[in-house]
Design a protein that fits this description.
Radius of gyration of chain A: 11 Å
Radius of gyration of chain B: 29 Å
CATH architecture of chain A: 2-Layer Sandwich
Oligomer: heterodimer
Number of strands of chain B: 20
Number of helices of chain B: 10
Structural class of chain B: alpha/beta
Largest sheet of chain A: 4 strands, antiparallel
Order of helices and strands of chain B: EEHEEEHEHHEHEHEEEHEEEEEHEEEEHH
Largest sheet of chain B: 6 strands, mixed
Distance between the termini of chain A: 32 Å
Strand content of chain B: 25-35%
Strand order of the largest sheet of chain A: 1-4-2-3
Number of domains of chain B: 3
Shape of chain A: globular
Largest interface: A-B, 18 and 19 residues
CATH topology of chain A: Histidine-containing Protein, Chain: A
Number of helices of chain A: 3
CATH superfamily of chain A: HPr-like
Chain lengths: 89, 336
């Protein structure tokens, strides 16, 4: 299992569109994906769960990936978050 | 039987409440007034649902003093305090607040001596005056704290009220939990929560599931997007909370796994230390999970009312086999 913390960098936080991007990437992999913010832990492949995190700019989420393709999954998920979901603010 | 809920789908929620939140939420019901000069004490958190009357502590006996509980002072304690000399009162008050108690409530609308409040201010602890009697306050506050501190977890799943039976669907992301719920709603059943279900144990053998404020009764249907069940189907299609009675574990059909064929044995799963029946349903093309769900709910009700179809049928079969055997015995021995 891999675990990594990342900061949400885009101005609007984890609103609907970034959430959708995140679960789309997470769903490409066989591994189980979980996101945690404070004491709320949700399934990374479910958009409702990810939106429930209500992660604003500057907040930290912990990514957990567990499964055969966890290395690539973690790499791509982190990349999507760090790219600011393609939002230039 | 393995339940997905038993593994990584279950996330514990920590329970605590700040004095500020308690004050804001129960202020009217408990008729509280803050007596401190400032509001610094409101930042403290309450981590224990029990109340304590510090009678012994006021006499100076602080051994085994449960300082993490809310301290409730009634008429008796107040009558004792005002009888103390000013020095002793200051000393006892300082010692009491030195124990870092979360908050103090004085009942019957009594105002404690100023030295007591001064000591509280110094240790940034809130003192409230409450107009209720100690007995009424204890009842109301305990009920509220029990609710706040009831053990709870978040589960990745979907909760639907089917014929009054709470069915909790679990299974991998994308297996179709939301779609089953949608189909059930269409047939007149009620959605409680989709995707994230908060489960709270309210009594030793009762677990209640509810949704989150933010998600409400929204759900994601793959290919369609996010829909609002309340808007689409109206108030009759939703429910705020429901006792969870059966877990329905959805999985992809596997040739290698053996599925239940009789239903004579009860498979059980444990959620928050409460045992509930679990039904494992494999998904395969052409299978109507909605109707199966209704049957699971009705079958559960039959069992609750003391009727177990599988056992009844198995008994009937055994009787018939017994009868056949004795007829055969009779005929075989009847040679002339």
């Amino acid at each position: 299992m891999l675990k990594k913390s990342v900061k949400i960098m885009n101005k609007l936080g984890l609103h609907a569109r970034p959430s959708a991007m995140l679960v789309t990437v997470a769903s490409r992999f066989k591994s189980e994906v979980f996101f945690t913010k404070a004491d709320l832990r949700v399934n990374g492949k479910s958009i409702m769960g990810v939106m429930m995190l209500a992660a604003e700019k500057g907040s930290e989420i912990t990514i957990e990936v567990d499964g055969a393709d966890e290395v690539q999954a973690m790499e791509q998920i982190v990349q999507v978050v760090q790219s600011g979901f393609g939002e230039n603010d | 039987m393995q339940s997905p809920v038993g593994q990584s789908y279950i996330f514990a929620i920590m329970s605590e409440i700040s004095v500020e939140r308690l004050y804001a939420a129960r202020n009217q019901d408990l008729e509280l007034t803050l007596l401190n000069s400032g509001e610094a004490g409101l930042n403290k958190t309450i981590q224990n649902p029990e109340l304590h009357r510090p009678g012994m502590a006021l006499t100076g006996f602080f051994e085994r003093f449960p300082n993490r509980r809310i301290q409730v002072l009634g008429e008796t304690e107040m009558a004792f305090l005002i009888r103390l000399t000013p020095d002793r009162l200051a000393e006892i008050s300082a010692k009491l607040f030195d124990y870092d108690v979360p908050m103090v409530i004085v009942t019957k609308g009594i105002n404690p001596p100023q030295a007591f409040i001064d000591a509280a201010d110094k240790h940034k602890t809130s003192v409230f005056s409450c107009r209720l009697t100690t007995a009424v306050l204890t009842n109301r506050l305990s009920a509220y704290l029990d609710h706040i501190f009831a053990p709870s977890v978040n589960v990745h799943g979907t909760l639907v009220d089917v014929y009054g039976v709470g069915l909790l669907y679990t299974g991998k992301s994308g297996i179709g939990k939301s779609e089953v719920a949608l189909d059930l709603v269409e047939r007149g059943h009620r959605l409680v929560a989709d995707d994230v279900v908060k489960i709270t144990r309210t009594a030793p053998d009762v677990i209640i599931g509810s949704g989150s404020e933010l998600l409400g009764h929204h759900m994601e249907i793959r290919g369609v997007g996010i829909i609002d069940i309340e808007e689409l189907f109206g108030i009759r299609a939703i429910r705020m909370q429901k006792r969870i009675e059966v877990e329905v574990s959805l999985s992809y059909w596997s040739e290698t796994e053996d599925y239940e064929r009789l239903g004579v044995e009860d498979h059980r799963t444990t959620l928050l230390a409460v045992q509930i029946p679990i039904v494992s349903v494999p998904i395969s093309p052409g299978k109507n999970i909605t109707v199966i769900s209704e049957v699971i709910a009705m079958n559960h009700m039959l069992k609750v009312y003391g009727e177990n179809s599988a056992i009844e049928f198995s008994k009937k079969l055994s009787q018939k086999l017994g009868r056949q055997a004795s007829t055969k015995d009779y005929l075989e021995s009847d040679f002339e």
